[in-house]
Amino acid sequence: MAPLTYTCRAGYVTIQVVSGDITEFEGDAIVNPANTLMIMGGGVALAIKRRGGAEIEEKARRHAPVPIGGAVATGAGRLRVRYVIHAVCP
Q1: Are 79 and 30 in contact (CB under 8 A)?
Q2: 66 lies in which domain range?
Q3: How far apart are CA 80 and CA 20, in angstroms?
Q4: How many domains does the chain have?
Q5: Would 1 be classed as within a structural domain?
Q6: What pTM was estimated for this model as a whole?
Q7: Which helix (H) or strand (E) covers residue 30, if one does?
Q8: Residue 32, exposed/middle/buried by CB under 10 A (0-12, 13-18, 19+)?
Q9: Where in 41-80 does DSSP place strands (E)?
Q10: Are 25 and 80 in contact, with CB atoms under 8 Å apart?
Q11: Which of 25, 32, 35, 31 lies closest to 3, judged by CA?
Q12: Cis previous bond, 3, omega within 30
């Protein structure tokens, strides 16, 4: 099954929402649903770390603790995006 894509444009910004394997995405950034300590130990975070490399978690943890609602951007290691945005969810 092909990934489903939704695109929204607002001025000079284009946001694309794609369903599929987040570690296969090619573009500017992906968003990791993070915890306050930036530990990438399970779920989506672990998949990102396994595919992109442990340096993603190492860079994110330098900013810990991050409050709920906060976010940190890091490089993406071996992923085919420029950044991983670690958004802290409740």
Answers
A1: yes
A2: 22-88
A3: 14
A4: 1
A5: no
A6: 0.86
A7: strand 27-34
A8: buried
A9: 71-75
A10: yes
A11: 25
A12: no
**49 occurs within a structural domain:** yes
Residue with tokens 């989506």: 44
| pLDDT string in tens for the chain (90-residue length) | 666 889 999 999 888 888 899 999 999 999 999 999 999 999 999 999 999 999 999 999 999 999 999 999 999 999 999 999 999 998
Query: Which CATH number is 53's domain given?
Result: 3.40.220.10
**8 in a structural domain:** no
Six-digit token string for 70: 């906060």
Quickly tell me which residue has 């071996």 as its tokens: 78
- Spell out the residues 6+ positions from residue 34 whose beta carbon is closer than 8 angstroms to its own: 40, 45, 60, 66, 71, 72, 86, 87, 88, 89
Place of tokens 């943890």: 61
Assigned domain for 37 exists: yes
